[in-house]
Amino acid sequence: MSFTFELSPDLAEYGRAVRDWAVAEVRPHARQADTAKRPPENLRAILDTAPVPLGRLDVPDAEPFPKFEEGTWVTKLVWAEALAYGDIWVQPTMGGGLGHLPVASMGTSEQRRRWYEPAVAGGGLTLAFALTEPGFGSDTSLVATTAVQDGDSWVLNGSKIYCTGGATADFITVFATVDKSLGPRGISAFVVPQDTPGLVIVKRNEEKLGIRSWVTSALGFEDCRIPLENRLGWDENGPADDEDLAGGQSGALGALSQNRPTMSAMAIGIAQASLDTATELLRERRAGFTVQRWSAIESELARMNAVLERSRKVNLQAQWVADKAADDRLLPAIAKAYGPPNTERVIRRSMQLLGPEGQSTDLLLEKWYRDCKIMDIFEGSGQVQRLIVARGLVGRAAG
Q1: How far is CA 366 from the centre of its chain?
Q2: pTM of the entire structure?
Q3: 246, 280, 310: which is the final residue of a domain?
Q4: Concatenated DSSP letters for 341-370?
C-alpha cells in the first residue's frame, strides 16, 4: 500500500513563508557563518525579522510554535526543511536541542517539571545531549563514561565528543554506565549543570567537515559530582519505582529516534536549495547545450526532484505515525536511512552538472555538500539505520 499525504493549505503556506524568509534573511549570512565557525553576531535581530512564529525557545515570551491539524512532528518537518533551504546555520540558534527528550522518557514527574517543561516552554533553558565518545560512534552499547554512587552523589568520569551545544547549554544530559557487566542495560542518563566542578570543556567547538557554525563540544568529566536525584528515574532516595519510565540504552535511542526524520528534512532542505540553484544556472546557459544534451539534463533534474519528493513522503509517514502517539522506531529509521545519503548524491550531482563553478566558493553548493554529509552520521548513522530496518523486517538474524 502506498502512502499519500498532502499538507493542509495552512501548513503549506506556513512552510512557504518560512522558506521565503530563510532565503532572504538567513542565506546571505551562510558563507560568513561557515568561515567564522559561529552564527552571525546579530542573529537575534535576524530572527526577529521572521514574519511567522518559528517556535523559538531562546527568548522568553516568544510566539509559540504554531499548531496545525497535522500535528507537532509533521509541522516540525515542514519547519526544518524550510529553514534549511535558507541555510543550516540558523537551526540551533533558536534553542531546543535533544537533551530534554531523554528527560521526557526517562525522568520522573519531578524531573520533567524541573528540566523538561522549562526547556519546551521557552525562555532560554537548554539541555545538551552527550552520548558519543572517542571510542565509539554508532554502537551506543560501548559507552565507557562511568557513574559511581558515592553516598548521596554520583561521580562521573569519562569523555564525550560532538555534543551539540555542550559548551553553551545550561544542563547536559550525559549517558554513562553504572555497571559495565550489564552492557546496554547498565547505561543511564544524568543531568549535569554547566557549572559543576569536574565538568571540563575540552573544546568549545570542534573542527569538522560541515555545520561548522554549530557548537559541537568535546567534554571531560573528572570526578564530576552530582546529586542522586540528577540521575533520570531517581529521586534523592534512589530509584523511583512507582513510575513507568524508559531506561538504559533504549532511553537514549528512543530520544534519537523521534528526531531522525527531522534530520532527514534538514538534508532535504539543503539538497533542494542546491538543486534549485543548479537548475536556475543551467537554464540560463541552455543556449550552450545541444538539444540532446539539454534533454538529458532536464531528465536528470526531474529524477533528482523525484528523489527529494520521495524522501519527504517517507519522513511524513514516520512523523504522521509519531503524531498519532504510536511508538514506532522502524519508520524513523527508514526516513534517516533513505533521506540523507540520497540528498548527498543530489548535491554532488548538482555540483558536477555545473562543472568547475559547482565546486567554487562563489556558490554555496560545496558548503551545503559538507553540511549534508553530517546528516547521514548524526543521531545514528545510515549504516545503523539500515540495520534497524533489516531487523524490523526479518528479525535479529539480519545482524
Answers
A1: 21
A2: 0.91
A3: 246
A4: HHHHHHHHHHHHHTTHHHHSTTSSHHHHHH
